[in-house]
Design a protein that fits this description.
Blueprint lengths: L1 E7 L5 H12 L4 E7 L1 H11 L4 H4 L4 E3 L11 H4 L7 E7 L1 H9 L5 H11 L4 E5 L6 H12 L3 E2 L13 H15 L20
Parallel strand pairs: 1-2, 1-4, 2-3, 4-5, 5-6
This protein binds flavin mononucleotide.
């Protein structure tokens, strides 16, 4: 069993978080954990007209964002299994990005990301902001240098997605690639060099 913690913070992109949690729930060998910040609840209301349960209902374990005594707040939780846990922060607000970059974490989403970094475990931040200020860019660089993967939500049009859902699924596949979680979601393989290319 591999534990994957999905942290949801208050950036735009809640349908992406919902799609990711839905896909993870259907994956064998994966146990999904979820924590949704209070900022994310406000965005969820605006974007989906719903509460956090549309995300948390797909997770095996749900944590409260102010519960700093929860397992993911401690390094030992991350290493309790033979295969250590990984964290996907989807979507990642600039506020949460800045908190994790500075190490001054204030809720469980931020603290869990801080612990993933200090334990040198996989941490992927799917950021959502545009344009980016020098502060945002410096925070991103600090986190990249600390070992995190910064992955702006940037869908590829080369797979010719026919719907928003197709675009979200494609992005989820690329997020899962970052933590080496095998999946059968569609992937771009270039225009040449296929086995059936003459
Ligand atoms: C509808 C809505 C959309 C937002 N979109 C973004 C966004 O895309 N990126 C961002 O950094 N903040 C965005 N914000 C602002 C954050 O939600 C706000 O800074 C919040 O304090 C972040 O809290 P958190 O990082 O603890 O979840 C948005 C807020 C609302 C209400």
């Amino acid at each position: 069993m591999r534990d994957i913690l999905v942290g949801v913070s208050g950036a735009s992109g809640m349908p992406l978080a919902a799609c990711l949690l839905r896909l993870l729930a259907g994956m064998p060998g994966v146990r999904t954990h979820c924590v949704v910040s209070s900022g994310a609840c406000a965005v969820l209301r605006a974007e989906c007209g719903a509460g956090p349960e549309i995300l948390t209902s797909c997770a095996h374990t749900v944590y409260q964002p102010d519960d700093l005594a929860a397992g993911p707040a401690s390094g030992s939780w991350w290493r309790r299994n033979r295969e250590p846990a990984a964290m996907l922060l989807v979507p990642c607000s600039m506020g949460t990005l800045g908190a994790v970059a500075s190490g001054a974490t204030r809720n469980l989403v931020q603290r869990a990301a801080d612990v993933a970094l200090k334990e040198s475990l996989p941490l992927v931040l799917v950021t959502r902001e545009s344009p980016l200020s020098a502060v945002h860019l410096r925070n991103m660089l600090a986190l990249r240098e600390a070992g995190a993967v910064i992955m702006p939500f940037s869908p590829g049009f080369y797979l010719r997605p026919q719907s928003l859902d197709a675009m979200l699924v494609q992005t989820c596949g690329r997020i899962l690639d970052q933590i080496h979680l095998s999946h059968r979601l569609e992937r771009w393989a270039g225009t040449t060099g296929h086995e059936d290319t003459p």
